[in-house]
Specification:
Strand order of the largest sheet of chain B: 1-2
Number of domains of chain B: 2
Helix content of chain A: over 70%
CATH architecture of the largest domain in chain B: Orthogonal Bundle
Strand content of chain A: under 5%
Strand content of chain B: under 5%
Shape of chain B: flat
Number of domains of chain A: 1
CATH architecture of chain A: Orthogonal Bundle
Number of helices of chain B: 19
Structural class of chain A: mainly alpha
Oligomer: heterodimer
Largest sheet of chain A: none
Largest sheet of chain B: 2 strands, antiparallel
């Protein structure tokens, strides 16, 4: 306002430059997304076309994806994934909160050793133990079932407690001590004091554990093998791109991608505040 | 650990305590678990101890000893044709299955560890009740014991199920696979047709040096893994910080809108976006078609089919996900830079670029160092981008079961799933662990999150 003329012109130039950069960048960022949406409405089938924009548009791909179950049963995959996601999300959230609360709030002899063990375990690549897990599940006789998938997704969840522990560390201890003085047990303190104060971290934990079954296809493919009925969405869509299917199903694959991405992206964007708080919780405070 | 003056209770000291201070019942507890508790009318607790001991002994007698023996030999009887005299023909005699023998052995080790811990708890409890009785105090009944698990021992209640899950789905499989790294469980030693056996550290020798094709694969793959991790981490970081600074400029309006545009690429499941990118980048894919129709190129660009080009493509495509991610995480940090720093600089007459170089950058680098390290280790293990985008390809005969863009983790995956070389896969897993562990140890222990965990409580 009280800047000199040249200063404000300089500033205006910079503003224009930033808007242009942002627009160009976000256009580039949107290309793959626009392209998959376009492909999902494309009238001509086939995986590769010799032109960029489709020649005709139709909603047939969506209709066939949802109703034609001869080769692929998309609606079933969707309900499978939803079921697995809800179950494993409930179990993992409980595991993560329980472990992180204990590690943050209670002091016992094995606390530091256990935390160090957890950190060491986390440094092994996850795929290393995949085959052993498969044989263990086979030993119990539950491979190719949704229960096995739930157990694999949530079984080891207790190890991922570091972020939630970091959050609990920031809650004032005085609150707990006041509760003990009033005669509350540790369990009552956890459920009545800590949980109500922990909304961001609970949302973060629920969100991440709910989303992972929608993304994973490696463990799912090892466990499910050829049991098409129990496929999850990610695994099924991955299957559609195999050589014998890709030409007939590419546009349906695109439709499936759009259908699955909309709810997940909406969930993520509406919860991103909690996600950022969860990931950077320690870092922001330095 | 251990540096506090607090007395540490080691297994020996409990046993020594029983021998020196324990009465006859406590001493009997060394052999018959729970008898001291039964004597002091802790019926339920005593019975539980006794029951656990009996079931452990039964298990050991029935299968435990066998399991341990099997784990040492890993089987002696190869499956094969044996002449059956009564039938007068060769019949297929079932051999030992080394894989199952090792699995039962590992399970047995876990059972033994659990039993030793129970046995110790039994001794501790025996001493406790003896002391209580000597002092003439009330000896808690079963109900009282249960109540402490909701209060003073609440941590045990809370940890029980999660630890069971971790033991079954992380620790046990991991112990199994680590043991496999010391055997020759590769594609020529597959049970049940063949046995595999302990070979000590040979796999490490094969992979790190003397193994011909395998070690000739390992070193280039390791080199590319490190190159990839360095480039992916640094470029994402720089790009993300710049984008965050751009969006957070005071004069830029509609900040949430811009942020959402970029965050879309993280919000969409990565298997969707990466698989789509993969088809777009094929020789006949959308990108080449577009460039051709605009007349910029005549021949298709070999985005994912040429080794060097594929490496560049992967790093560039990864920016599409990585830059917004860094932007999202660091935005909060940037907004938290204390305004007073800038005010002081302005008073001293610093201009915008000096303030950026002397205040913004040092501050951002300082607070995001832990994030940078996590990202680097995450990128060493970044399975999805490579597997979905290039599948490790273009494939080559110079490598054993790996393509030109395979990382150690994707190579490990291929060795497990397609060639069933479990021993090599496990060895590589251990090596990846060593790399991550060294990086973390060098840095993580210095961060404030680890050292000052009680700073905010």
């Amino acid at each position: 306002m009280f800047n000199s003329g040249s200063m404000s012109r300089n500033k205006k130039m910079k503003d224009v430059a930033s808007y242009i950069t942002l627009s160009v960048l976000s256009f580039i960022w949107m290309i793959p997304i626009m392209w998959v949406v376009m492909t999902s409405f494309r009238k001509e089938s086939g995986s590769y076309t010799s032109y960029f924009f489709p020649k005709g548009y139709t909603i047939d791909n969506y209709v066939r994806l949802l109703t034609d179950n001869t080769q692929f049963h998309f609606t079933r995959w969707f309900t499978n994934t939803l079921f697995v996601a809800v179950c494993s999300c409930v179990i993992s959230t409980f595991f993560v909160l329980a472990v992180s609360y204990v590690m943050s709030r209670m002091r016992f002899r094995m606390r530091k050793p256990l935390m160090n063990i957890a950190m060491i375990l986390g440094m092994f690549p996850g795929f290393m133990s995949m085959i052993a897990i498969y044989y263990i599940l086979k030993g119990i006789g539950i491979t190719q079932s949704l229960a096995a998938l739930i157990m694999v997704y949530s079984g080891g969840a207790g190890l991922g407690f570091f972020i939630a522990k970091g959050f609990f560390d920031t809650l004032p201890r005085a609150l707990d001590e006041a509760a003990y003085l009033d005669g509350a047990t540790r369990m009552q303190t956890f459920f009545k004091i800590t949980v109500p104060l922990s909304k961001p971290i609970i949302v973060y934990t629920v969100l991440t554990s709910f989303l992972s079954p929608w993304m994973d296809f490696i463990f799912a493919s090892v466990i499910m093998g050829d049991n098409y009925d129990n496929y999850t969405v990610a695994l099924g869509l991955f299957k559609m791109l195999e050589r014998e299917f890709i030409n007939d199903y590419y546009t349906q694959f695109a439709a499936g991608c759009v259908l699955i991405s909309i709810p997940i992206a909406a969930l993520f964007i509406s919860m991103q505040k909690y996600y950022v708080e969860g990931v950077s919780g320690g870092a922001v405070k330095g | 650990m251990g540096k506090t003056g607090k007395k540490r209770v080691l297994p020996e000291s409990v046993v020594a305590g029983v021998v020196s201070k324990g009465d006859i019942w406590a001493k009997l507890s060394l052999v018959i678990m729970g008898i001291a508790n039964l004597r002091r009318k802790q019926i339920v607790k005593g019975c539980i101890f006794l029951f656990l001991e009996v079931s452990f002994l039964l298990y050991m007698a029935k299968s435990g000893i066998e399991a341990l023996k099997g784990m040492i030999t890993l089987g002696t009887q190869t499956q094969g044709w044996v002449f059956d005299e009564t039938l007068g023909i060769d019949v297929l005699a079932e051999g030992d299955n080394s894989m199952l023998l090792l699995l039962w052995g590992v399970l047995c080790l876990f059972v033994i560890v659990a039993f030793v811990m129970t046995w110790r708890a039994n001794l501790k409890s025996a001493l406790e009740v003896q002391e209580l009785e000597a002092k003439g105090k009330h000896i808690p009944g079963f109900i009282d014991d249960v109540k402490t698990y909701l209060d003073a021992k609440f941590h045990r209640t809370m940890l029980a199920l999660p630890m069971l899950g971790v033991l079954a789905f992380t620790v046990m499989p991991l112990v199994y696979m680590i043991l496999v790294a010391f055997t020759n469980y590769d594609n020529t030693h597959q049970p049940p047709g063949n046995l595999f056996d302990w070979i000590g550290l040979d796999n490490f020798g094969t992979i790190l040096g003397s193994g011909g094709l395998i070690s000739q694969t390992f070193w280039p793959v390791l080199g590319w893994t490190i190159t990839w991790a360095v480039f992916a981490t640094l470029l994402n970081y720089i790009g993300g910080i710049l984008l965050a600074l751009l969006i957070n400029r005071k004069s830029v309006k509609f900040k949430p809108f811009w942020r959402t545009m970029f965050v879309m690429s993280i919000a969409i499941p990565s298997f969707v976006s990466l698989l789509v990118m993969k088809t777009m980048l094929q020789p006949d894919g959308a990108v080449n078609v577009l460039l051709k129709s605009m007349g910029w190129i005549k021949e298709s660009i070999p985005f994912l089919t040429d080794a060097t080009m594929a490496k560049v493509t992967i790093i560039v495509v990864n920016l599409w996900i990585g830059i917004p991610y860094t932007m999202l995480i660091t935005s909060g940090i940037l907004m938290n830079i204390p305004e007073s720093l800038y005010e002081a600089a302005r008073v001293d007459g610093a201009n915008a670029s000096v303030m950026f170089r002397k205040i913004t950058m040092p501050y951002v680098i300082f607070v995001t160092t832990p994030y940078l390290i996590t990202q680097f280790i995450g990128n060493i293990n970044n399975f999805n981008v490579i597997y979905l985008l290039s599948g490790g390809g273009p494939s080559t005969l110079d490598y054993y079961q790996a393509g030109k863009t395979d990382l150690l983790v994707t190579w490990l995956y291929k060795l497990t799933v397609s060639s069933k070389d479990y021993s090599y896969a496990s060895t590589i897993g251990i090596l990846v662990f060593v790399i991550s562990a060294v990086f973390s140890l060098l840095t993580y222990r210095r961060t404030s999150a680890y050292n000052n965990e009680e700073a905010f409580q």
